[in-house]
Amino acid sequence: MQPTPRPHPDLSLQAPDYVRRIARYLPGKPIAELAREYGLVEADIVKLASNENPRGPSPTVRAAVAAAVEDVCRYPDGNGFALKAALAARFDLSAEQIVLGNGSNDVLELVTQAFLRPGDHAVYSRHAFAVYPLAVQARGATGIEVPAVDYRHDLPAMRTAITPATRIVFVANPNNPTGTWIAPDALEAFIASVPDDVLVVLDEAYNEYLEPERQAPSAAWIAKYANLVVSRTFSKAYGLAALRVGYGIMDPNVADMLNRVRQPFNVNALAQAAALAALADADYVEQSRIINRAGMRQLEEGARALGLPFIPSHANFMLIRVGDAASVYARLLKQGVIVRPVANYGLPEFLRVTVGLSVENRRFLDALAVALAG
Ligand SMILES: Cc1ncc(COP(=O)(O)O)c(C=O)c1O
């Protein structure tokens, strides 16, 4: 006789409440998934949903990755010696001030892992990057969301929201998904106003898309503000999103704490080799910025021609107000165009579209016109 099966317990009930309350991150829909769901040909699909660089990796990056493949049987350098040395030289910092991450997302997580206890507070803006609340919640800490003004970070209000319970303040510049930008003077005044035992995490994932005169001298601020962590990534303008590599620059004592909680081999060898090559390829980044600016103008003109309001953006994406964004998104999917709905950011009337190549932007605008027509 078969033994009666034991009732199947729901182990999710054993997870801490603060984990069970987390609403999962919603990534952009992958091309292969849309192709499967709608029976479309992958090559015909345009994905403008995850703020990736549409140009593909540069030839030097391809060569570096191909060379590094030879050694994939070995663990990567857990200290990222060569990449940190190159970054240190670039920013005139020491290697001890740099922490490498599996994407800059990892750096954001590491800061919360090293510095937040259950019950601590972390401050961020409404409509700011979705990972901040997730990372804070995963530690059992409390996220304090400060209302935005005109979709922008309200820095004075964020300063007021800091209390003795606050351990971290997140600032995204430019911010995702709004594309809004804070001028360097205002940003530095804010950092200087934050109590020096509260970390300021300045997320500059889209920094390289800013016109050079708009880029803050944030690396130089590290020497002045021991509580400043600047995070950057190779996923966006450097075109390495799939490889997952980013970095944080900060005071060595802060870096030491992040290094204690990070995985020993958090950045893989192909990513390190690619990032090193990408960092040396200034032309690729510069051209990406110029192509992006032209694409942004194309999308702005297209939105105007359709009579759609948009939020002027300083990054490689923009928010367009389309009304019932969920249905417009679905109608775009049917036409093989993937963008990003942002209702989870409290922006249910907007779609976020990444600036693509000119032909992709055209495809999106044409599909949008069709989608709006019903
Ligand atoms: C503002 C912001 N910060 C950080 C990231 C994380 O990117 P990655 O982990 O690829 O560096 C993103 C990605 O979309 C972002 O928009």
Largest sheet: 7 strands, mixed
> Which structural category fits the helices and strands?
alpha/beta
Query: What shape does the CA trace take?
Result: globular
Unreliable residue runs: none
* Number of separate helices: 14
Helix content: 25-40%
Amount of beta strand: 5-15%
Radius of gyration: 21 Å
Mean pLDDT: 96
Query: Largest beta sheet: what is the strand line-up?
Result: 2-8-7-6-5-3-4
Describe this entry's structure for a reader.
With 374 residues, this protein is α/β, with parallel strands linked by helices. Helices cover 39% and strands 15% of the residues. The chain has helices at 17-20, 31-38, 59-69, 81-91, 104-115, 131-137, 155-160, 184-193, 218-224, 252-261, 269-280, 282-305, 325-334, 358-372, and strands spanning 46-47, 98-101, 121-125, 142-146, 166-172, 199-203, 228-233, 246-250, 310-311, 317-321, 337-338, 340-341, 350-354. It has a seven-stranded mixed sheet with strand order 2-8-7-6-5-3-4, sandwiched between helices. It is globular and about 55 Å long. The chain starts with 16 loop residues before the first helix and ends with a helix. Residues 51, 103-105, 129, 172, 176, 203, 205, 233, 235, 241, 246 line the site of pyridoxal-5'-phosphate.
